[in-house]
Amino acid sequence: MKTYKRHRFPPDIISYAVWLYYRFNLSHRDIEDLLAERGINVTRESIRLWCIKFGAIYTRRLKRRHRGYGDTFYIDEVFVKINGRQHYLFGDNWDDRLTTIILAGWV
Question: Is the separation of the CB atoms in 91 and 74 below 8 Å?
Fold first, then answer.
């Protein structure tokens, strides 16, 4: 790709750093630390400049892949201990008014 010309690091590392920044909302220092753990020594200033230069491209790609939620059905379930007894809580948000139905059962 032409946009990566004259950069010291390969496109995979640059795209990974920018992806981390925009996907997980990490700071430049956090990304610097994550890359250092993998043996890649890059400054946070380089990461900042990559995010400025390549950020618009990656955010467009991420938004294009994210189709939104529309009329999909999501289920939330969790195990909770109340007074030493474990309960199974099940909730679903299934209409436009965000009506939540919570059913509790014993486990």
Answer: no
Residues 51 and 80 grouped into a single domain: no
What is the tally of structural domains in the chain?
2
For residues 79 and 58, membership in a common domain is answered with: no
Instruction: Give yes or no for a contact between 32 and 43, defined as CB atoms under 8 angstroms apart.
Output: yes
Phi, psi of 76 (to 5 degrees): -115, 130
Q: What is the pLDDT of residues 15-73, one digit of tens each?
A: 899 889 888 889 999 999 999 999 999 999 999 999 999 888 877 776 777 666 555 54
The rounded distance, in Å, linking the Cα atoms of 99 and 44 is 45
Q: Are strands 74-82 and 85-93 parallel, antiparallel or unpaired?
A: antiparallel
